[in-house]
């Protein structure tokens, strides 16, 4: 389901190719910030519904007021969150880190737009009634608790910060200590085996989450331990010395506990998002319409467009009067 409602009473008897409508719609869509806005504008069709037409012109007029005042609403994180939100409301579901990051970015931009509309400043307070009405369904909600709770635990790429929970912080500190102990043990082994020319190079590497050292294939029996594969040439094998096996086992255990804790934290975030699903979706719909309106406002400013005066069908002399009009693509 689209975030934006369909255009009411679309005009079907229209020579779109002769008017260049499709080219105009595609050109207009380039002014949108989001994929949602671009898709709606490129597929837009003329309407014969006078109430809808007047509302759209009023929204664009107010958006031009914002544009003139230097107000640029942030809409770059807009996407259709319906699927992710439906998933978040399922019992036991866990959103992927990127899904969580996208939803939180969207909630943050929704919150910023709602905050602006609540207090746009004295100069704009009485000049945005249509935009305020369009956002009425989201202005009453406060997504700050969700944004702050989740944002504090996330790194920019969606992964978890060390202090996302006390347990995660403890595990990662223990893992760092364990890795240092393994590295010290392997460096000692490298020094011993290097004296006889057994090791291929002074290097510690990882194979299958196990820290290993490279050993010349013909000398692998001289290094007591477990072989974890060989190089593509076959000249080197990667050996986990016996003395580090228990250290590596402990590190693997810590890694498993870390993954379990990460899963628990993401599951808790998913439940939080699920609780805020209705206002997040409402906010996405508001931002989607705002994106198309601001796109049309920027287009109108760039081409010095003016709002048409529409007569009612029952007017005494209905007709069409175009004064100094020009096609924007010609």
TrEMBL record:
Gene3D superfamilies: 1.10.1420.10. Residues 161-188 form a coiled coil. One of its GO terms (molecular function) is ATP-dependent DNA damage sensor activity. Keywords: Coiled coil, Endonuclease, Hydrolase, Nuclease. Residues 19-330 form the DNA mismatch repair protein MutS core domain. GO terms for biological process: mismatch repair. This is Endonuclease MutS2. It comes from Acidobacterium capsulatum.
């Amino acid at each position: 389901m689209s975030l934006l409602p369909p255009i009411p009473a679309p005009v079907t008897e229209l020579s779109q190719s002769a008017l260049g409508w499709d080219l105009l719609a595609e050109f207009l869509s380039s002014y949108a910030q989001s994929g949602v806005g671009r898709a709606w504008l490129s597929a837009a069709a003329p309407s014969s519904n006078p109430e809808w037409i007047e509302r759209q012109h009023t929204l664009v007029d107010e958006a031009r007021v914002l544009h003139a005042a230097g107000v640029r609403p942030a809409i770059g994180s807009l996407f259709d969150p319906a699927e992710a939100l439906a998933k978040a409301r399922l019992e036991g579901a866990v959103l992927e880190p990127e899904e969580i990051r996208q939803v939180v970015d969207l909630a943050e931009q929704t919150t910023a737009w709602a905050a602006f509309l609540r207090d746009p400043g004295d100069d704009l307070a009485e000049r945005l009634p249509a935009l305020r009405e369009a956002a009425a369904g989201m202005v009453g909600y406060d997504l700050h608790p969700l944004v702050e709770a989740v944002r504090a635990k996330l790194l920019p790429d969606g992964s978890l910060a060390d202090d996302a929970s006390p347990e995660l912080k403890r595990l990662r500190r223990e893992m760092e200590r364990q890795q240092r102990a393994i590295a010290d043990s392997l460096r000692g082994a490298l020094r011993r085996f290097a004296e006889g020319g057994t090791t291929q190079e002074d290097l510690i590497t990882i194979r299958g989450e196990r820290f290993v050292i490279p050993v010349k294939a013909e000398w692998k029996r001289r290094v007591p331990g477990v072989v974890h594969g060989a190089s593509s040439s076959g000249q080197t094998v990667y050996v986990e010395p016996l003395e580090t096996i228990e250290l590596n086992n402990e590190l693997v255990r810590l890694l498993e506990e870390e993954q379990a804790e990460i899963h628990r934290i993401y599951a808790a975030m998913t439940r939080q998002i699920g609780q805020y699903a209705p206002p997040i979706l409402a906010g996405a719909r508001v931002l989607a319409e705002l994106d198309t309106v601001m796109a049309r406002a920027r287009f109108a400013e760039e081409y010095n467009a003016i709002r048409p005066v529409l007569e009612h069908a029952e007017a005494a002399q209905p007709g069409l009067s175009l004064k100094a009009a020009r096609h924007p693509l010609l």
